[in-house]
Amino acid sequence: MTASDIVLSVRDVTKHYRVGGGFAGGPAKVVRAVDGVTLDIRARETFALVGESGCGKTTLGRVMLRLQEPTSGQIDYRGTDLTGLDEAAMRALRKRLQIVFQDPYASLNPRMRIGEILAEPLRSHGYGPPADIRDRCAELLEMVGLRKQYLHNYPHQFSGGQRQRIGIARALANNPDFVVCDESVSALDVSIQAQVLNLLADLQDRLKLTYFFITHDLAVVRQFADRVGVMFLGRLVELGTTEELFAQPLHPYTMLLMSAVPRPDPRQRGRDRPMMQGEIPSPMHLPSGCRFHTRCPFAQEICRREDPSLQAIGSRAVACHFPLSG
Predict the structure, then answer these.
(1) What is the rounded CA–CA span in Å between residue 225 and residue 200?
(2) In angstroms, how far is CA 47 from the centroid of its own chain?
């Protein structure tokens, strides 16, 4: 993989929040939402990030786009360090870096017509005269499988799946090449999920898009992603291709995530499947050593003392003292 193959890379990125202190009393504490993440996202691939709720997936996606400022680290987009850009320079790049939000009900302004919602980012980046903007809005709706007559409607007149299509159209308004999809199908019915995923795949092929796909749904990952990162308490614990990861997970957390997926065969009750122990530790009170050792059925003494770093194993990477294989 050469530098020209990489659309966006992050190097040792952190996002920490201070909680408490001040008028609330007591010492301030630090929530390590993202804590030293390094990864590369290749051109025209779908990179999926999975993990339990609260592990830092959405925070990382927003930090990548500088919708939230990183505490430290470097974010590089096609050779440009985004963390070093001022507001004006970042605004100029913003149209190349877009996001599709999770909730299609909350992400659209209920007081604006669809045409106004789609026109807003176009006007913001100086797309052209009003006639060109109207034509582009109609083109965007047709691109996502909706009729241009809907430009005069309000969001409440659409179903959840249609609203998410409008959200996708808005993200594509200024021809981005990197799109963060933040749980963008999790709020939809299963049949509608399949339609939206097919739409995203078709748009990726036609427009040469790169996706950073945040989800907790491993079935969607298996269908849609090229590569997968597994996140636990702000850290990446495993990286690999989708095929490799589902064929043989290396990290116990990945294995346990997969074992928790319901099986459609009623004969497979799952009683012999390993299960995660205990509750997720608080990001304000992280355990010593490996962050997963309090829930890991294979933990040994070194896991309680030393925090493993992400190490390459062939074409993959895993942060574990005792990988399951490899």
Answers:
(1) 11
(2) 8
